[in-house]
Amino acid sequence: MTGPIPVNVLTGFLGSGKTTLLRHILADPAFAGCAVLINEFGEVGLDHHLLQMVDEDVVLMQSGCICCTIRGDLGRAIRGLYDRREAGAIPAFGRLIVETTGLADPIPILATVMSEPVIRHHFRLGNVIATVDAVNGAMQLDRQPEAAKQAAVADRILLTKTDLAAPQAVAALEARLTALNPAAPLWRSANAPPAAEILIGSDAFDPATKPAEIRRWFDMARWTGSAAWHRHEHDVNRHDRTIAAFVLEVEDRVDWTVFGIWLTLLLHSRGDDVLRVKGLLNVAGVATPVVVQCAQHIVHAPSHLDAWPDGDRRSRLVFITRGISRAEIEQSFAAFQAAFATVAPVLA
């Protein structure tokens, strides 16, 4: 593998099957030789996997994967792992998987990978995979804000233990997760998760695979504009109480400076509640679409597609927010555009 090393984040609430899924991924020969970081307070003992100690912090697993425990700062752990890789102290790895503790907010992990200069030079964000327990998931979404955030920011969702839950409960939870995060593909698993290639083979943040991700966002945009979505917004049994997903659509071309200032101010004032933003902008003076992605206060570097994936040239941004409505975002952006249009001639 050439270029920055992809980082896949595996998250999910306590007991939702993260480690079972991790074992499944590492058992695939195509993904042997990964590096794995596991939170110090994680639920899994790895003794039965260990083959040999590399140093006091790192072990080599039977799959060929490097595994170590995070005992402090994540950024320091990632940098140290890379330094040992380059020095030849541990085998080379072409992918890093971070398994979070069940109570973790995944946003700080994404922020570390996306914002730390040294890490950004050697690594890139792959995707976020969230496991949700079909038996306890609905209760956890109600009572644990971390569980809702884990599902809301995920690029892939795996509904586990579906063989242990009533079919009606599974269907209701699946509908709730789809309403919570419509852009994320969702699979059911009764001890048979999807192939590792499906989960992490095409990374959501890899420029080479962006068109497929963007088509999913567009599908979401079309669905959220339907009457069915309108009903879901007002049905508390089908939508999370505080976390909402919606699409901001802009018909006219967007001034990049105006958008940048507006987004900066939005994240400065409400960044804790803007869980994810991702989509395409039709920027004035730019022939191809600009890809925008951010998570809370962290903005991913914008990138360009070679062409529009479909005939629709409107700017479309998928927002996943907590306590912020579509109307608030639309009114804020429209007001900011209007204010800038009034001031711009004076500045000129």
Automatic annotation (TrEMBL):
A Pfam family of this chain: cobW
Keywords on record: Chaperone, Hydrolase, Nucleotide-binding
Keyword flag Cytoplasm: no
Origin: domain of life: Bacteria
UniProt catalytic activity: GTP + H2O = GDP + phosphate + H(+)
SMART domains: CobW_C
Entries under InterPro entries matching the protein: CobW-likC_sf, CobW-like_C, CobW/HypB/UreG_nucleotide-bd, P-loop_NTPase, Zinc-reg_GTPase_activator
Domain CobW C-terminal: 243-337
The keyword Hydrolase is annotated on this UniProt entry: yes
Family assignment from sequence similarity: Belongs to the SIMIBI class G3E GTPase family. ZNG1 subfamily.
Described purpose of this protein according to its UniProt entry: Zinc chaperone that directly transfers zinc cofactor to target proteins, thereby activating them. Zinc is transferred from the CXCC motif in the GTPase domain to the zinc binding site in target proteins in a process requiring GTP hydrolysis.
Listed name of the protein: G3E family GTPase
Source species of the chain: Inquilinus ginsengisoli
